[in-house]
Amino acid sequence: MRDRVARLRSASIDSVPSLSIERAHLVTQAYKEHEGKVPVPILRALTFKKLMEEKEIFIGEDELIVGERGPRPKATPTFPELCCHTLEDFEVIDSREKIFFRVDDNAKEIQEKEIIPFWQERAIRHKIFQEMSDEWKDCYEAGIFTEFMEQRAPGHTVADGKIYQKGFLDFKKDIENALENLDFFNDPYASDKKDELTAMSICCDALITYGQRHAEKALELAEKETDPHRKEELLKIAEICSWVPANAPRTFHEALQMYWFVHIGVITELNTWDSFNPGRLDQHLYPFYKKGIEDGTLTREDAKEVLECFWIKFNNQPAPPKVGITLQESATYTDFANINNGGLTPEGYDGVNEVTYLILDVIDEMRLLQPSTNIQLSQKSPDKFLKRALEIVRQGWGQPSIFNADVVVQEMLRQGKSVEDARSGGTSGCVETGCFGKEAYILTGYFNLPKILEITLNNGIDPRTGKKLGIETGDPRNFKSFEELMDAYRKQMNYFLDVKIRGNNVIENLYAKYMPCPFLSIIVSDCIENGKDYNAGGARYNSRYIQGVGIGSITDSLTSIKKHVFDDKSISMDTLLEALERNFEGYEILRQRFLNHTPKYGNDDDEADQIMVQVFNMFFEGVDGRPSPTGATYRINMLPTTCHVYFGSVTGATPDGRLAGQPLSEGISPVQGADRRGPTAVVKSCSKMDHVKTGGTLLNQKFTPKLLEGQTGIDNLAHLIRAYFRLGGHHIQFNVVSAETLRDAQRNPENYRDLIVRVAGYSDYFCDLTKALQDEIISRTEHTTL
Amino acid sequence: MEQGIIFNIQKFSVHDGPGIRTTVFMKGCPLRCKWCHNPEGQVQGKELVTYGSRCLGCGSCVDVCPTGAVSIREANDKGSTGVAADNLGVAKPHARAITDRAKCIVSGACTEVCPTGAREIAGKIVSSSWVMEEVVKDRIFYDQSGGGVTFSGGEPLMQPNFLYELCTKCKEEGIHVAVDTSGCASWEVLERIALVTDMFLYDVKMIDEAQHVKYTGASNKLVLENLIRLSEAHADIVARIPIIPGVNDDDKSVDDLGKYLSTTTVKRADLLPYHSIGADKYDRLGRIYELSTTPEPTEERMLNIKESLEGFGLKVRIGG
């Protein structure tokens, strides 16, 4: 790593996250000026324009890639049009121990005098809670499901290659063409389309202006600069920024700067979930890299330096401040930009190229929380590629994660995407499959599978809140068979899915109506052709997801009831309910029997695994194929972020022997400690669900460093992964750290400031995790060697 | 169909032959090596294993024991009963089950009722097809990695017919077979098994016969003769040499081993540095571990021994 990169990297790591009020102020001014006078898409475009024209321009010392969302690194804006924070929220955000943002008095004053009075009853969050039914609110508060869009905008999309082929002047031409071709006589939506396209056109100009402002700032700095070398760099930055984003990039450096302007545009327009990301970066950059190397204008080392400067820019952008349940389900600074490497080309060839290996070197050197990275491993991918990635994985900080490119393509084909589009897609966020640059694949909330069993066992009542949340499916004491219980569980599940989706429909319409995102729409096919916003169904493909959480816990709970109550009849349902209600107090022996004398998911034991398959299919059938109001289709995926901890905290004792309040199982991983037959048995169990029917599953495994020592360690890990993928698995990732180390880190955090661990589909600093999450990670089964 | 007694099936076994393997541990061994880390594999019959720290002191075992071999003893100090942290219910936090092994007939009744799995039976009588059913579950990992199945123990050659049938079935399934043996069996048995085995992991502990008797309880004459004969007939053999400080890690022992191995056709040797991981198991079986003060060999010494043996033309690895 060059000195410059080392300096930038330390500066990024050391800078303290703060809250910037700049955006909130500019947005409020724009709304005050234009609201009610122009159609909503144009209001949003004018707001974007004001931000791009007036927000402070930052070019830091040493930087080669420029552009910050806030006035400086880690100064993170708020989005009052979505979530208008109270002053108490600001206090909490400032003072909480983990995931804090420093808030200064100026910000508090502006919030109080300007932001709150204007936004408190206009923010989307306010509208959502106003429009939701009582049933929805009760379920939401009880922790049956979460709601992704109550503080953050739909996002969950990724750039494809078009921004390396076209500049925003070219996009503007496309938009003008579309405007010219509008048929106001035969197309009843032509006038809506005109508004949307006009809005997109304004956004093209706005981003170009933003680029120009960086060029001007760089020139200004160059004039003052005394170091001739830096002066030259600043002049080069000025030249690059006066070319992109207006025009298509011509060089490797311009390509990265182009992407970065787009990235800042997307995450400033709205606080989209999963920020945004460049997707198949190795494939997009390869032509620029090849050309530069061939004509002698680029060296591998120079390319690496610019890439590393680019990497650091991601780390400068924490996820915007979250509060309440949204914070609990996603308690991290990580904003889930997840860069894909390898995989297939659109033609179906092996996609690994020289830039792939260059990026792997960058990942290895950077060791940053952001961006997240992954490899897309196909049967066609060379072992060299996998093994290079595993050398990094073995170091234990959870990057890059590993995806099955062939299954990812199959998932998209099942959903009806063209094969070329599918191959140019990949995975983003944690593990979510999507068609990059062409799909809105929006996650709507986590769904608490074990909690629904708790409610089923209480005939529709939630014992924690005492409220009747579900429907009456009968007193389980009267159930004659396990099938009757499963039937009741299915009815409850479908009822809660109905409540969730009914709420989703309202929220989706709110965003379509009040929060179009004309800038993002420019770069997602086919919003221009359709004259329709990304948030209104303008993309070529539109999917909505509900994410199942706790498949391990629900499986083991149901297996336990099946075995002990119905098959062996060793206890009565009444005793079971009593034991659960008392959180096993006075029933420790029973709890131990549940823990130790029940088949468990994760041991390649069909008796347990087939129940997992039943629940999985039930969830799939309840969700998959349902329509959304803007024309999207519902799908499932299986990932938790940090929601397994939150959902566990609101779920009472479960029949698998789990005590009340303890975390649920994570991703599709077995219950922590229940998998006792090693990693091959775990992946066999996990592969019994049909991953192709999902848009992503998440499997984390924990290995002791010793198990992966030497070349044999890498080889065996590679074989394990290849075998899991032959069995149809979607994703696997590893923590390579011993429980002993983690316990020591809990006791002596000052010695472990740099310790990064895999949480779910992302990595985080161990010391930034809540105690509950730290404990959960420690309790995961550790595969070791004798 | 043959039946046999096993005490474990270990998946993702990566130190007992090439690739990802499943190791089937067969119970019963003619030797009693003092450093043995699988003492539950020595006796051929079933044995009771107890995990004191898991015991809740609930007394379920006392009620079902047909011979009255189990009793509950109240512990003196609070910390001695492990699990007793919280929520014990009707269990007695300061009590623990004590077994009179002289009375125990290993009925297994207590293991079925013990809620925490603090009591287990080591040794399960199974048919060869039962073993195969478990073994083929991980076939995809063998295919992917060039792995397979390893029969270990105990001493698998003590159950020759069972082993022969298992090896044959693996061959029929196209699964690579390794046999991890002490070599302490009649040549006829070994010769027959060699017909259906792809690879031998063959333990050679020491050359001095008196020392061998002292530390393993048996002569090494048969072991050393068998290896010479086997190596003439069978190509794929890895000699496995446990390095036990104070027993066989001196220069002379190493030199003797090297000289002996050069009289065979064996080309590869794995050095297995002594570790005390197995020590707890002795306690769980109600036995005494005699090597409790033996240190692990230093890395430097291991490299040293490796170098010496390489001097005899062997390809040597540290670790299995």
Task: Give a written overview of the molecule.
The complex is a heterodimer of chains A (786) and B (320). Chain A has 786 residues and is of the alpha/beta class. Chain A has 31 helices and 16 strands. In chain A, strands 3-4-5-13-12-16 form a six-stranded mixed beta sheet. A four-stranded parallel beta sheet of chain A has the order 8-9-10-11. In chain A, helix 15 links the parallel strand 3 and strand 4. Chain B is α/β, with parallel strands linked by helices. The two termini of chain B are 33 Å apart. About 4% of the residues of chain B have low confidence. At the A-B interface, helix 25, helix 28 and helix 29 of A face strand 1 and helix 4 of B.
Q: Keywords for this structure?
A:
heterodimer; A: 786 residues; alpha/beta; 6-stranded mixed β-sheet; 31 helices; 50% helix; globular; B: 320 residues; 9-stranded mixed β-sheet; two-stranded antiparallel sheet; 11 helices
Largest interface: A-B, 35 and 28 residues
Shape of chain A: globular
Chain-averaged pLDDT of chain B: 92
Q: Which spans of chain B have pLDDT < 50 for at least 5 consecutive residues?
A: 77-89
Q: Rounded to an integer, what's the Rg of chain B over CA atoms?
A: 21 Å
Distance between the termini of chain B: 33 Å
What does this entry show, briefly?
The complex is a heterodimer of chains A (786) and B (320). Chain A is of the alpha/beta class.
